[in-house]
Amino acid sequence: MNKLFTPHDLAGLQLPNRLVMAPMTRSRAANGVADVLTARYYSQRASAGLIISEGINVSQQGIGYLFTPGLYTQDQVDAWRCVTDAVHAEGGRIYAQLWHAGRISHNSLLMDGEVPVSSVARPACGARAYAWITSSVPGQIITSEPRALETAEVASIVDDFVAAGQRAMEAGFDGVEVHAANGYLFDQFINGELNTREDRYGGTIENRLRLLLETIDGLSQAIGAQHVGVRISPFGRQHDLQPFDDEPQTWLALADELGLRELAYVHLSDQQAIDADCEDDFLVNFRRAYPGTLIVAGGFDQASGESALQSGKADLIGFGTPFIANPDLVERMAHGWPLAQADRKTLYGLHGARGYTDYPRYIEQTVAAPPKQLMTRASFSADALDRESEQASEAEARSTLTSVVDDFFSAWSDAEWQALAPSLAKTATLQSSQHGEGRGLDDWRRLLSTDTSALLWLRTSNHSIVIGRNGQAAASCYVYGLFGRGRQRLLYGASVVLRFRHHETNGHWILTSAHINVNWCRGDLALAAHWRMSPSDSGWELGDAPPVIVSELDSPWALIRDALPQSDAEVAVRELYSKYSWAIDQGDIALLSDCYTDDAAGGFAPMGPLQGRHAIVGQLKSFRRHWPWMQHFADVVRLKLEPDRRHAQMIVARIIPEQPVDAHGHALYGAHYQIRARLEDDGQWRICWTDYRPGWFTNADVPAFDIGITHA
Ligand SMILES: Cc1cc2nc3c(=O)[nH]c(=O)nc-3n(C[C@H](O)[C@H](O)[C@H](O)COP(=O)(O)O)c2cc1C
């Protein structure tokens, strides 16, 4: 009988199958805090028997790689709560991997003046950390020279793990895994060739295992041994670990010790499976010494995983890389569907959704595959698509359209046209209030490249995409950019609408038009001498060129009438803010009315509290008249669905283009909205409560949810 798809009782946690998503660092947490993409990434993979999170830093001292998340601040706990809620809402289970990188780190990642710590003051030869090469450039860099932890300091490492374990449980994880594998801090103590300490943490096997066992015991006492697992990589040679004399005895002694503790599991990063320096019968001996649940990971495919289960070598199989490109790995393996390959370029780093949450499920891919003609224009008719395939089509189309939108902005800001060219219709029209009008790639390149010589940066926000059943789609967003030459500066803000057509035969989305309207600019107008006209905050006057190229008629919600419902509730809620901002900034009162529920209420500083859609819309209409060119630039910085999935909470942070970052490079915001949204019976998300709160903060100290409390 096939074992991979049979259930397993993990110390009381019922796993529906034996596929474990192995821990994988993705370096996507810009400030060490998980975000909505993290929640989406893990919840997409919730059909795994168990998810083990990426390595999570237990302290600032333990950080080894940039943009890795932590569990040492309340913000981090709150953010992980959104992730675990999302995974549980999809029926999944998730453990947090707790991590201290020890000497595999770099001074630039640590507090001022700190250096990495380890068992001894010996650097890892040739090892690299992902850290700051200069104060603003991240990259791979040789690890810094560590210092040896004082004997008395070792207890604080245990404390950090215990505190992080408690926070993990507070954040809703089902348990924690101590990361004692791959050459990080615990391995640096266990390895007898490296650890030449002469205190109670070095020398004998017992001493070298002490730090790990004290940590496990501390955690077991704090959160229960049934919630504690541990990952080790016996015979691992990662990060300059060398063979040592009593190596097999050390690992088997550890197996004995762990066996006494009734832990949730031991997770072996199986060096044999990845052809490393390991004794042939080691796994069998380890299994004999450790009677509890054993996970093995490393180089497994379905056949070798099944065979490891059948032979009794392991109880659960950890799959790493296969989960990256196959969010539905369990379903693919269960049905014998082919696996997608991960794009190695986006394994790590701040690539947003790319290579993270945009890998489709097999079922979506099949619906989207051009050879089957399922994504042709005709198939966008309501008859052809049932709800599930509509969702799949929407998700697939959205992912493609997002890439083309990105390509458009790379072309505009960096003169990088190669990626966009295949998606641009031969007769695509460009209409811009500032750049003029043109048709086709050469015109677009000529008109927009007039900006590039003086452009210091160009950023986008307030994105939305609406996809129609008729094979048409539209995307809108805001742009703010800075021109500079010498000491001159000019800041400007624009609205952009891109329109797309789905190609009937080849299944691609083609960009057919771009409308750009620069709404305002401030600074030295000489820098915009190439523009057809310079907008200003004083508004249009008789004799000026027609100013409005983007109006409410160009909003995606006006252009695309018979829209597919958004496949992802979080995207829908996020785009509710884009819709609201577009409506108020364009004075589109009908669209604005559609953003609120009838019974909406909340605080509208500086006007005060308002009750009911009627009062809100009337008041906002009067309010906006004073700022005809205003653009509500913003980022959604927190978002979570409530358990009923019909309500959502969101914090939207107002970007102030004059000061988008602070002195440390953190995104800076001048105010925020607390918003609660409700999914109404017509399938639309609307704001049912909101409170606007002026006050500066950065993305390193985002306000907590405070829903239902009106300050205004
Ligand atoms: C992108 C990536 C990140 C990883 N990060 C971690 C990590 O944070 N913690 C850890 O214990 N192992 C980490 N690993 C190792 C994996 O958990 C796994 O052991 C390894 O990929 C081998 O399994 P596979 O052949 O199924 O991919 C990582 C692997 C990859 C590919």
Automatic annotation (TrEMBL):
The keyword Kinase does not apply. SUPFAM superfamilies: FMN-linked oxidoreductases, NTF2-like. Residues 3-338 form the NADH:flavin oxidoreductase/NADH oxidase N-terminal domain. The keyword Oxidoreductase applies. InterPro entries: Aldolase_TIM, NTF2-like_dom_sf, OxRdtase_FMN_N, Oye-like, SnoaL-like. Keywords: Oxidoreductase. CDD domains: OYE_like_FMN. Gene3D superfamilies: 3.10.450.50, Aldolase class I. Signal peptide: none annotated. Pfam families: Oxidored_FMN, SnoaL_4. Residues 568-688 form the SnoaL-like domain. One of its GO terms (cellular component) is cytosol. Its cofactor is FMN. One of its GO terms (molecular function) is oxidoreductase activity, acting on the CH-CH group of donors, NAD or NADP as acceptor. Belongs to the NADH:flavin oxidoreductase/NADH oxidase family. This is 2,4-dienoyl-CoA reductase-like NADH-dependent reductase (Old Yellow Enzyme family).
